[in-house]
Amino acid sequence: MRKALIIGNWKMHKTVGEAVEFARALSVGLSGTDDRDVAIAPPFTALYALREALRGSTIALCAQDVHGEDQGPFTGEVSAPMLADVGCRYGLVGHSERRRHFGESNEQVNRKARALLRAGISPVVCVGESLEEREAGQTFSMVRRQLKEGLNNLSADDIRRTIVAYEPVWAIGTGKTASPGQAQEVHDFIRQFIGHRAGKEAAAEVRILYGGSVNPENAASLMAQKDIDGLLAGGASLEVDSFRKLIHS
Ligand code: PEP
């Protein structure tokens, strides 16, 4: 019932030329993937050129971040209406790198998610515990808090349009992946949270992605888990071949 979704997060990589070359090469090998959605999250600078390069393709665009206001004196920031204008269908909010390097709070994550929803873009709300929190047995309380505050004031309808990405911080860019069982346990917890918060139907509909050192070798066993509906990949999305393998996993 839930369509799989694979998002490649390029972080701060690729010039416009490199991004367009990648998109053209990826589009060529993408037949037979109608049963899944695919999106690329490039740096802001490549969004417009990618929209043009991807015309006629099923690959969607995802923003890596957004500001919580629609416009105003916020030098250096990009708003949700601007992202809608360049064709973004999805937008990441609360990626652990933004939380860690830029001090992003759950409250800001919530404002960003609401800004995206106002602009007709589906937020991808990233949650996940650090290694210390996991070792202290705080995984579920941490994820619950991120969800409670990150989804604050969202209606059940808003939540149905939202995607959650479970990304244990200790697995991002480290080469350590959560085992399929570890990931499934947290995904199940997230789905139950959504059920309490927005009802059974929303819980059945919301897509929950896994992210954290996903690669072509571990993708299929993660995707085989009941509550893992897709992948958010960083490093493995930077090369056409490995990203294509993730899409086909
Ligand atoms: C990410 O950027 O969201 C991510 C999961 O990165 P990586 O796949 O490189 O761990």
Whole-number radius of gyration? 17 Å
Order of helices and strands: EHEHEHEHHEHHHEHHEHEH
Strand content: 15-25%
What sort of overall outline do the alpha carbons produce when their principal axes are compared? globular
The CA-CA distance between the termini, in Å, is 18 Å
- Which distinct ligands sit in these coordinates? phosphoenolpyruvate
Count of beta strands:
8
Strand order within the widest beta sheet: 1-2-3-4-5-6-7-8
The amount of helix comes to 40-55%
Number of discrete helical segments: 12
Mean pLDDT: 96
**What would you call the structural class?**
alpha/beta
Sketch the major β-sheet.
Answer: 8 strands, parallel, barrel
* Unreliable runs: none
Short account of what is shown:
The protein is α/β, with parallel strands linked by helices.
What would your notes on this structure say?
By secondary structure, the protein is α/β, with parallel strands linked by helices. The chain is built from 12 helices and 8 strands. It has an 8-stranded parallel barrel with strand order 1-2-3-4-5-6-7-8, surrounded by 5 helices. The longest helix is centred in the C-terminal third of the chain and has 19 residues, at 180-198. It is globular. It starts with a strand and ends with a helix. The model has no long low-confidence stretch (mean pLDDT 96). The protein binds phosphoenolpyruvate. Phosphoenolpyruvate binds next to strand 8.
